[in-house]
Design goal:
Blueprint: H1 5-12, H2 19-35, H3 42-65, H4 68-87, H5 96-113, H6 117-123, H7 129-153, H8 159-167, H9 169-179, H10 183-186, H11 191-211
Helix pairs in contact: 2-7, 2-8, 2-9, 3-5, 3-7, 4-11, 5-6, 6-11
Length: about 210
Amino acid sequence: MNVLGAPLLFLIEPSLVPGSIILAALLHTVLSAWRERGEINFRMVSWMFAGTAPGIVAGALTLRVLSENGSALLIAVVILSAVAIMVFGLVPKFNRANMAAAGLVAGFSGATSAVSGPVVALFLSQMPGPQLRSTMASYFLISGSISLVTLALVGEFGAQQFGRGLLLWPAVAIGFLLSSPLRKYLDRGYVRPAILTISSCAAISLLVRALG
């Protein structure tokens, strides 16, 4: 969604980002959270939300004063900085302040560019695969819903974006079904490298979008 979907949709029709792709992602979060529901870390989800709401509001308001390219450039810098920190072995602790900070940045980046996954994934990358996926899905199910309401209130998400988001749901469902048998391979020690790689690609795609 973040690495391929958002950049490609932006190239096809900029108005589809972030609203339409956030709506499409909601289906995926529901399916993912349900599939591994026994692994959800509700404590972590709740503390990340302490920072999410202010981040979403700030992001939605930023769209009113900052260009989409400016927002994309800002988020790309944040993600690449986080990747660099992780590569050099500086792993953030799972305390309340850090969880709230991760939620703040994720809320802001999701509302401005629909690319919030890498921020949370980097923070949760120490978790086992099933717990990481289910916790992320639960978090994004709620934050995505809040983002859409907030975007609608500031005039950045309407009927057209809603309809086009629904058109993406069949493809999302197919991708989810294809992912099920592949999880066991990723969980053999490849979750963290995959997150670092995908997050870097997401940041680069945002840079291309902003500077292109």
